[in-house]
Amino acid sequence: MKRSGSPLVLSSDDKQRMARVESLHLDGEAGVAELISLLVDPSWAVRRAVVAALAGAGDGGVAALCQVLVSQRSDEARIAAAVDALSASRAPSCDAEVLRLFGDSRLEVVADAAQILGRRKSAAGVPALEKLTQTGDDNVAVAAIEALGRIGGGAGIEALNAVLRGDNFFRVFPAIGVLGRSEDPRAVAPLIALLSHAFYGAEAARALGRIGDPGAIRPLARTLARSSDAMARAVALALAEIRGRVQALFGSSELVAKDVASSVDSNAVVERLAQVVPGSATDEQDALCEVIGWMQSEAAAGVLVRLLDIAPGAATAALGVLGSEADDPLEAALVAGDSARRMALLPLVAARSRSATSVLVCLGDADPAVRVLACNALGRIGDPSAVPALFALLGDGAPLVSQAVVGAIQSLGSKTTESLALESASSTDPNVRRAAIRIIAYFGYAAGLEALLAAIAGPDDRVREAAVHGLAYVDDERALQALLSVSSQSSARMRAAALRALGKVTATPQVVQRLQSALEDPDAWARYYACQSLGALHTEGATEDILRLTRDPAGQVRVAAVEALSRLQGTAAFEGLRAAAASTDADVQRAALVGLGLQKRGEAFPLLAHAARSAEPATKLIALSSLAGYESAQVLPVLAGAASDPDENVRAAAIGLLATRPEPGAAATLIGLLSTTFARDRAVAALATQGERMVPALAAALPNAPRGLATALVAVLSRIGSPAAIDTISSTLSLPNVEARRAAAAALTLLPGLAPREPLLRGSRDEDAEVRRLSLSALSR
Q1: Percentage helix, strand, coil, to 5, in the chain?
Q2: pTM for this entry
Q3: Using CA atoms, how far apart are residues 429 and 195, in angstroms rounded to an integer?
Q4: What residues contact 505, with CB distance under 8 A and at least 6 apart?
Q5: Do 338 and 367 contact (CB within 8 A), yes or no?
Q6: Which pLDDT tens digit goes with each residue over 230-271?
Q7: Would you give the DSSP letter of residue 10?
Q8: Where are the strands (E) in 74-122, listed by range?
Q9: Among 148, 536, 576, 734, which has the highest number of CB atoms less than 10 A from its own CB?
């Protein structure tokens, strides 16, 4: 229902005027004069319709609209509508007519014309707009600056750089913003020159971050120790943004951190940035702590530990990338810290600890969440000396802690685990006994058979289920007979557990017969696990029985039946999968698509290709994964189409699968994706995984590559990093294509010691200033 007063609700008068606008639009140029008069209609909806009609009115509409800007300036709404219509006009004469407005003596007309050309992204208007950046009126100059920013593509870069040198406050700020959004390396040097300026420094730093040029790293870093709080925040954000850009393109950003650390007094920077963190926004704290971490010192580690109370997320992330210098401060803080600090530090210590000593202290923490993290950490550290302490915690009253203890013991193993588990299995504490049975079951200790048999006769269903699971791993006839017995018990829960376990034993006639009879079990979960087990045991003789369950009333049983058919090789099983792939039940259909992919039969290809074009992203993902196993050349067009899918997950899957294909067309498809914005980063990573065999194709694409593609091609070569790839980047400095030369020089600044000096020396004498700057920067490393 439309709300009263909404702009979408038209009165009867509005509707009549809208109909009149449509009629005038159909009249072509004959209707232009009356449409012009309607630019001041009181209804917003009518005015929008008038603007659209005039935008499509051809050259006659352009002339009339330009006349409005020249001679009918008494009404702001009329002017705004005329600007909108000219900005959207499709008339061939529009740019030229608007350019003529620059000859008007009134500055406001000139400013409107500049705005229109910018919104139209008019390349023809660039020379005139460049001149206007130096005009005497600030409003006109700013309009020209913003218009050049809208046009983009490097339009007016040199004129904008000249604005920066002019030191006009009202013009410099918008010019900095436009240059930052341009991502053009030609803006780097002028922006660097502004870093020391009291008014412009922080804005220049932000712009350098957006450009992402590695040449700005050292100049930015050198401002840190002596900067104001605002400048420190801006520089840290810029450095973090450059690091992110470098990481996305080249797959490694170590040089960014090293450049920063080598350019400053690390202790001074650590203390200065630590002072700024408390009053900063979350994203600023993230960047400040990240830069502190780059200093790779004990002082940095100590400061970051201190900052855990102020910016826990940022400090934790920064501590996680520190080297061995952080070990002692981290472990000391873990032992002495309260629960909150331990929560932050335990994941970090677990990833780097040399022993379990400091983590064991946390097993006695009052907070169950800390005890859980400590158990998880001990499991990852892998120090078996922690096993006795973990067994002592088996009876913890918090269920999550008990689960974590068992998980850690299972991860660690150790010579003492078996004896401790057998001892604990006879505990009077039900929690300890239950956990011990789970451990015995997990490891399948033969000596634990008696404990497992006793457990399945006990009263605790969870213990009984754990014991049933363990019996499948004990090579003893008594274990098998116990499973068969449990699979016929009155308890549906225990029957299901036993039927599931039977899928992990040898497929003797007795086992197969029991599983097949269980397909008729009244309990849906029992039928489910019977299906799964028959499939796992590849029981071809059960095909017909399993096929009947594809029509079972329980959805999970239907899915299990389809999954079981996937593991069977006969014609009947395949036909059952084909029928299930056309099911209206999405879960059944997707299970069938997985099964068809596993069987890799040619007859299934059309079904999978059709599913890859489904409206459902989940179905497309499964179909693509199933198609990946086919060697047919027909797979490539399907993957290529999916690589441009609207769904990001589908695109990612398709690009990843393209990277695994040996056909030359796969590489060509991925190289084509480098020209897109939605898939470039993934395509870079995918091509890099192909290694040196990609180098010739990448080199062939460089001579005619525009800026974005050239940067991406060189990024792939940098990630490959082989001698042939580095030689290709170096030889690119000799190409006529300046965009390729700039991309190569920028990459070589991030590959110190790998590039031969001769190409860089040649680049330092290049006719292009950016190539010279970048080559000299690479030579200085």
Answers
A1: 75, 0, 25
A2: 0.75
A3: 68
A4: 472, 480, 483, 511
A5: no
A6: 999 999 999 999 999 888 888 888 889 988 999 999 999 999
A7: P
A8: none
A9: 148
